[in-house]
Amino acid sequence: MKLRKLFLAWSVVFCTLATAQEFKVLNYEHIANDISGRKPDNIRTDLNGEKCAIVKIRTNNTDILVESGLQIEDRKAIADGEFWIWIRVDERRLTFRKEGLKPLVFTIPLSVEPLNVYTLDLIVDATGAADADLRTLTLRFNTPEVYIGQTGKVPMATPGLTANFSLPVGTYSFSATKKGFADKTFKVQLRNDTVVDITLAAGAGSTKLKLPGIVTINSNPQGATVLLNGQSAGVTPLNKELVAGDYDLRLDFHLYSPIESRFTMAEGETKELPVFTLKPRFGYLTVQAEPGSAEITLDNKPVGMGQYPKTQISSGVHTVSVANKLYHTSTEKIAIADGESKVLNVKLEPAFGTLHILSEPAGAQVYVDNQQVGTTPYTNEKCASATYLVKVSLPQYTEATASVTVSDGKATNKTFAMSANFGVLTIVAPDATVTLNGKVLSPNNYKQQLAPGEYTLTAEKPHHRTDTRKVFVRVGSSETVSLAPEPIMGGLSIITNPAGAAIVLDGIKQKQTTPVVLSLLEGSYKLQLTKPGYDPVNKNISITEGETTSFRFDLSNIIASRQKHVTRLKSSRVAWLSLGAALGGTGAYMQYKANDNLERYNSGDPDVGNLKSQVKLYNTLVPVMYGLGGACLVPVVTTSFKINRLNREIKLNLSAGTGTAIQLQF
């Protein structure tokens, strides 16, 4: 029995020490690219002359002692929250000590290499068991103001239908009592935050509660959560009525170390506990990042872009990460001691370079990893560092491809010399319309760079047979092709009386005069024959392939033709004068008849109705007759002008001796 009691006592001591662990190692790693251990000022040797390694310790409390069986007696303070120690290469354990705290023995997980650098993140937590990992238990009742507590501890009344507890993981027994209800005892196995519904049945309870007292609990700062026997009782300042008995008190406040205490309430007692001063467990952190668009995360939580203003954070080691597209992410662990303020400036290293792509000749399409990005010369000032497949393509040139590597902060230049994949074809076809494989070429663009292959050329001209040619173009060749459409010809024979008339075709005067036979392209023409003293001849003619079209013209003497025209105009003038006189006479007669009928009407002629209608009709027609008669004078006047003009032409031709004297009558 004594041995069993002794074993239980040792078990209690061991468990107390285990839950009171106050040192925490969060991270230990080898920093491969840290060369500070190789700098002359930082080299230390052991008693055997062997070079040592450096352990950079980042912590929220530098007032600690680090021991090892083989540790070199050298320690270097770097800044608030960081100091260095030197250890031998065969070191295996480190012991951390601080007055009032339980020591921590840390086993080094990595082999120690000389002149290498290692980091260790250490949290010093002076709160001991008060920082136990607690779970929330919520008990919900079917009736309010139930007295509930752990079995064997003083119960507290629920303010409503629920009671909230904060307890370590474990199994707990509870007792519930209320006047008018049967007492109830139950167990809860607490692993995670849990909600349990409790139903009390009506009946008589057997639990007799002691008389209450009143306790006042306050803290600095105020607003701390008050737990009594693990049950939530409110926040400070708290003035509460409690059943007499013993109470375990815990005060929790964000970013402050919790406080645990005990007190006893007597029946009817009014007690004010001393003000509890909570110890701050926070510092301040400011982060400035470059570039300003970088995202800042603190312990994997996004906290800002470009900057994280001075903010209160819990003491300990935190992970700050700064990331931005096209830059290398920076991740740094930083130890914040109680009340410490740290500023972290992070300038991200670029993860990009400049890519220049040129080609000969220029103007080629540029593809990067099969994505078209532009034409040469092409520049990407911020191209992510990587290896790319770059291709350039230009019609009539062979594509060129290469693997191009872009490095951080460097300019990468790549020039592609592209091989021609065409031949040159020059086409000679004056005044013709030229087509290449059915596509009409510009008259000023008869020199073509063509991909290798067979092509069909045509040359077309009006009234010519199309000249068609097939050519084969080879790479690097230069060839000239002449195209000559064949004309389609016919003949034109012209005889005039008298001879010697000038010939004009489509406005172009010919060298020959009549009589003549001309060789012409087939088609339609406008023919004009002119000879001094004779009227011109105008005629539309058509020329047919292989045939001669013949014409004979008797030219008209200008004087004779003009005299005939004068005679016709005089006859026309007489006719118009006669018609005008007749219409005027008719109008005068109607005027007379209208006046006569009006007098008869006024004199009372028996035929009044007919006379009235006749007067009305005559009055309507009289102006019409006069108007038509006057209109006949217009052609009389214009005809007289034409006769005078023709007579002047006749006189001019007579005076020039171009015609035969003819007696003229006017």
Give a structural overview.
The chain is of the alpha+beta class and 666 residues long. 17% of the residues lie in helices and 48% in strands. It is built from four helices and 56 strands. The strands form 17 sheets. Strands 1-8-2-5-4 form a five-stranded mixed sheet, with no helix packed on it. β42 (433-436) and β43 form a beta hairpin. The longest helix is centred in the C-terminal third of the chain and has 45 residues, at 558-602. The protein is elongated, with a radius of gyration of 62 Å. The termini are far apart. The relative contact order is 0.05.
Layout of strands and helices, then pairs:
Elements: H1 2-19, E1 23-31, E2 53-59, E3 65-67, E4 75-79, E5 82-87, E6 93-97, E7 104-107, E8 117-124, E9 134-141, E10 147-150, E11 156-157, E12 162-168, E13 170-178, E14 181-190, E15 194-198, E16 212-217, E17 219-220, E18 225-228, E19 231-235, E20 238-243, E21 245-252, E22 256-257, E23 259-265, E24 270-272, E25 276-277, E26 279-280, E27 282-290, E28 295-298, E29 301-305, E30 307-314, E31 316-323, E32 330-336, E33 341-347, E34 352-360, E35 365-368, E36 371-375, E37 378-384, E38 386-393, E39 400-406, E40 411-417, E41 423-428, E42 433-436, E43 439-440, E44 447-450, E45 453-460, E46 464-465, E47 467-473, E48 478-482, E49 486-487, E50 489-497, E51 502-505, E52 508-513, E53 516-521, E54 523-530, E55 537-543, E56 548-554, H2 558-602, H3 608-631, H4 633-655
Parallel strand pairs: 2-8, 9-15, 16-24, 17-25, 27-33, 34-40, 41-48, 50-56
Antiparallel strand pairs: 1-8, 2-5, 3-6, 4-5, 6-7, 9-12, 10-11, 10-13, 13-14, 16-20, 18-19, 18-21, 21-23, 22-26, 27-30, 28-29, 28-31, 31-32, 34-37, 35-36, 35-38, 38-39, 41-44, 42-43, 42-45, 45-47, 46-49, 50-53, 51-52, 51-54, 54-55
Helix pairs in contact: 2-3, 2-4
